[in-house]
Amino acid sequence: MRFIAFLLALVAAMAAMPAAAQNQLFEVKGRKAAPGPDDKDNLWLLDLSTGGRVTILLRPDVAPNMVARVKTLTRDHFYDGTIFHRVMDSPVPIAQGGDPGGDGRGGSDLPDLKAEFNYLPHVRGAVSAARRGAPEGASEEQRTEAENSANSQFFIMFQPYLGFDRKYTVFGRVIDGMEYVDKIHRGQPPADPTRIVHAYIAADNPPPYSNAPAAAPSPAQQKDADIVLPGAGDGADAAGDPAAGKSDSD
């Protein structure tokens, strides 16, 4: 009975504790605080042509440059009308998009970004920045250049693949609408690709979900190499290693 009374008293004390103080129990010293799920400045909304609105919590605390890039491009309507051009369950479970040309080679007119590799894992729903792969036998300079080539493309994880950790910049995670991500059409590219009809930042007071056709995406900026998943050019077999992606245009 005394043990039960102790537990009840502990629960009552926690309930009486201010919410801010409770949150501090889970803070990690030396890390910036992550935004909460009600922080509209950091909620990225994707309305998909195959149905539904996907809500992604952006993480400027770990990837401020990529988050700022996504916000800029979203507000410029860059993503409206773009397709998910590389979608598969195996060997890597990803839905990749963000290329206005739809072939995995394009990006925005803005400069590429330096890598912001961080501690966030590539778990189900993680959203990560795509980049170029280094050629086989690449020098350290070539590897660094490839790592610092994120621009506009991104991918969403269907399932965990921790081999990507610290090789790509995770900058967000799906917190609502993952069931719509699961329905993104598969293929490289898909025969009938799923499109981002509209992309919004929640703070901009977007209208309710709509799958009405979006305006055509802006012209692609041609890159000097395909945007691929981590590991390409690291000496792995591109045909057999899931971390050695080839462009679907090859």
TrEMBL record:
GO MF annotation: an example: peptidyl-prolyl cis-trans isomerase activity
Q: What range does the record give for the signal peptide?
A: 1-21
Low complexity: compositionally biased ranges:
211-222, 235-250
Q: What keywords tag this UniProt record?
A: Isomerase, Rotamase, Signal
State the SUPFAM superfamilies in the record: Cyclophilin-like
Would the keyword Mitochondrion turn up in this protein's UniProt record? no
Class in the EC hierarchy, top level: isomerase
Alphabetical list of PROSITE patterns matching this protein: CSA_PPIASE_2
* All copies of domain PPIase cyclophilin-type, residue ranges: 52-206
Q: Which InterPro entries match?
A: Cyclophilin-like_dom_sf, Cyclophilin-type_PPIase_dom, Cyclophilin_A-like
Renumbered residue ranges of the record's region Disordered: 128-148, 204-250
What Gene3D superfamilies does this protein's entry cite?
Answer: Cyclophilin-like
Q: Which CDD domains match?
A: cyclophilin
Question: What Enzyme Commission number(s) appear in the record?
Answer: 5.2.1.8
Q: Which domain of life is it from?
A: Bacteria
Name the record gives this protein: peptidylprolyl isomerase
User: What is the organism field in this record?
Assistant: Stakelama saccharophila
Upper classification of the organism: Bacteria, Pseudomonadati, Pseudomonadota, Alphaproteobacteria, Sphingomonadales
